[in-house]
């Protein structure tokens, strides 16, 4: 081969190698656009990707994905620390039997934040947000809706590993189960702060795994059971300064479970506090009225132990 041909071949190889690195490189801040994006792009603001999944593969650990305009950008599987900021423009629609956001595949603890997103099950998705690995999950200013088929959940926290989940300023609407904690007796901690869970056909908040949960300044309404602890593990739910209204049953704790009630309004439910065999405690400052099957704070149902 002549020297000229060798040089041309070398240049071509270098160009191709550079192109591969350009398309596979990661950045701490990536972008998506429904109007102009392509997952073959570099995911910069000038050259955005089309989906959250495409952007996730090009976002470095601890990085952020932002949206340039309204659009549906999901579903997405996340295995590294990551923030997805939808700026109240981005949405994710689940496919049939699938999860909209699956946080999975990480061997070490990761931190994931979901902000300003509409997450839609379209009546066919399995889970809106599924945390299956150790780590910390924050959901802020989101709408999680329409995971309404039997057994589907708006949020599922499920692992035997240490997990922390905080949901703030979020609506969880029209799901079979609104917020589910399962996966075994792990050190799981959850908090719902200023959250509305409405139209959960089975249960608004169900804790079937171990750990503890705090609900504050929230509304649980028009659901089957608003707050339930199963008999499998020694879980605890504390409900403070919240409204539990128009549910079939407001509160139910089975055998080893424990629910604490502090400064809540428990109005217009079929049953206020059901005696399901578990422990329900209050210091007596809840307000109750209009519950068809009696008002909730009754000696038969509630141990009036001062907790605070």
The CATH homologous superfamily is named Single-stranded right-handed beta-helix, Pectin lyase-like
Number of helices: 2
β-strand percent reads over 45%
Largest sheet: 17 strands, parallel
> Which fold name corresponds to the CATH topology?
Pectate Lyase C-like
Q: Kindly state the mean pLDDT as a whole number?
A: 87
Q: Give the fraction of residues assigned to helices.
A: under 10%
Number of strands: 26
Give start-end ranges of low-pLDDT stretches: 1-23, 304-308
Which key features would you list for this structure?
308 residues, Pectate Lyase C-like, mainly beta, single chain, disordered C terminus, 17-stranded parallel beta sheet, 47% strand, 26 strands, disordered N terminus
What does this structure look like?
With 308 residues, the protein is mostly beta strands. It has one domain (29-289): Pectate Lyase C-like (3 Solenoid). It is 9% helix and 47% strand. It has helices at residues 3-24, 52-56, and strands spanning 27-32, 59-67, 71-72, 76-78, 82-93, 99-103, 110-120, 127-131, 135-140, 143-145, 153-158, 163-173, 177-182, 188-198, 203-207, 212-216, 219-221, 225-229, 236-240, 243-245, 249-253, 258-262, 265-267, 271-274, 279-282, 287-289. The chain has a 17-stranded parallel beta sheet that branches. The model is unreliable at 1-23 and 304-308 (pLDDT under 50).
């Amino acid at each position: 081969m002549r020297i000229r041909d060798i040089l041309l071949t070398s240049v071509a190889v270098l160009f191709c190698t550079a192109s591969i690195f350009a398309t596979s490189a990661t950045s701490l801040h990536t972008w998506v656009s429904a109007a102009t994006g392509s997952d073959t792009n570099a995911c910069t603001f000038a050259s955005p990707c089309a989906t959250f999944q495409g952007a996730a593969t090009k976002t470095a650990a601890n990085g952020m994905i932002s949206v340039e305009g309204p659009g549906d950008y999901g579903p997405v599987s996340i295995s590294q620390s990551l923030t997805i900021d939808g700026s109240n423009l981005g949405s994710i629609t689940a496919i049939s039997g699938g999860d909209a956001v699956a946080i999975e595949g990480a061997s070490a603890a990761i931190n994931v934040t979901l902000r300003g997103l509409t997450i839609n099950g379209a009546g066919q998705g399995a889970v809106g947000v599924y945390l299956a690995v150790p780590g910390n999950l924050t959901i802020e200013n989101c709408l999680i809706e329409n995971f309404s088929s039997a057994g589907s959940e708006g949020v599922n926290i499920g692992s035997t590993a240490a997990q922390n989940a905080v949901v703030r300023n979020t609506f969880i609407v029209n799901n079979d189960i609104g917020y589910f904690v399962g996966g075994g007796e792990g050190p799981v901690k959850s908090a719902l702060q200023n959250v509305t869970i409405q139209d959960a056909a089975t249960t608004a908040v169900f804790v079937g795994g171990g750990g503890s949960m705090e609900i504050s300044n929230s509304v649980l309404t028009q659901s089957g059971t608003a707050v339930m602890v199963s008999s499998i593990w020694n879980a605890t739910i504390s409900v403070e300064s919240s409204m539990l209204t128009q549910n079939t049953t407001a509160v139910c704790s089975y055998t080893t479970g424990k629910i604490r009630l502090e400064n809540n309004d428990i109005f217009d439910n079929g049953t206020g506090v059901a005696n399901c065999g578990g422990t329900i405690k209050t210091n007596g400052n809840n307000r109750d009225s209009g519950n068809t099957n009696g008002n909730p704070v009754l000696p038969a149902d509630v141990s009036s132990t001062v907790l605070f």
